[in-house]
Amino acid sequence: MIKFENVTKIYPGMSSPAVDNLSFTVPTGEICTIVGPSGCGKTTALKLVNRLHELTDGNIYVLDKRGETQNVLEMDPIVLRRSIGYIIQQIGLFPHCTILKNIGTVPQMLGWDDARIRRRAEELVEMMNMPVEFLDRYPHELSGGQRQRIGVARGMAIDPPVMLMDEPFGALDPINRTLLQNEFLRLQQEIKKTILFVTHDIDEAIKMGDKICILNTGGHLEQFGSPANILARPANKFVEDFVGADRALKRLNLVRVEEAMNAHPPLLQATQNVEQAVGFMVEQGIRSAYVVDAAQTLKGYVRVRDLKGKTGWVGEFVEPAATTIQMTTSLKDALSEMLVVDYANVCVVDAQNRVRGLIDTNMIHEAVLKSAAIAEGEEE
What we know:
The chain is α/β, with parallel strands linked by helices and 380 residues long. It is built from 16 helices and 16 strands. The longest helix has 19 residues, at 361-379. The mean pLDDT is 92.
């Protein structure tokens, strides 16, 4: 939990506040994105939590590892900062230190021994889908996307209950940015951290946030709520203009593939007889089907037209799937991927490449309509 209670910040020499009487609560285990125009106090609000900037007035509360609510003003600033994950756009990796030493910075300050630091670092790089061999490399030997993953890993090193993220993916190219957004959302399902996430991009705010805090110039709160509710009912003209006219399209970012997919699609086994497979597809009224092995691992797909008149096993005629989609992928990214590969449907897989479902354009359309109806109902 992170709670802002009438928080104000006025910098010395300034007559107007950078953050003005700000109040909102981020529930435990959720991501709250802070978004607004330049100079609205997004980063200032973030830095008030770990007291890199001191409050002028008000209080901020966080839930610690023991599950106890703490007023940040009553905590030692050094202890506070070491207990909160902090991830920034510039990453800030130490260029003269290995990846292991970078990840182990705060654990070492807290007195962890080398073996414990190594174990935690290995666990984190694997969590980031990176080989443990990278721990002995230096930052300049990694790509921009890889360095950003290490920045996230370093912020998670001590398993903090609260994390602050200041435009963490802002410096990346669009492809890597989308990739890391999706990876982090998948990871958040496992780690369930309470996160304040600053961004200038409303699409990123909608995609990443369980809650959105929209600020105006001077740190004034214009609207706080779920992305669905903000898209359904903007509080005022400022929010309406900031969110944009394409609110219906933005709803594609609200729904994850797992919420819209067919979790029981027609599948073929690689060891299945071709004649049986053709009969199955004709019966189901489908022209193609994905093929799995006994462990439900995706092997590829086959088409009826390629199997007719053939004998043998389905696995002998499998074509590789051009793409797959993770369950945590947004419908916007899923639709984009489907258009790129020109597929009517795409297979949904988990981290082990096991088939979990199927998604097509009709399912996406129905899910967006349902999301809009739910949001309207919640507001009434």
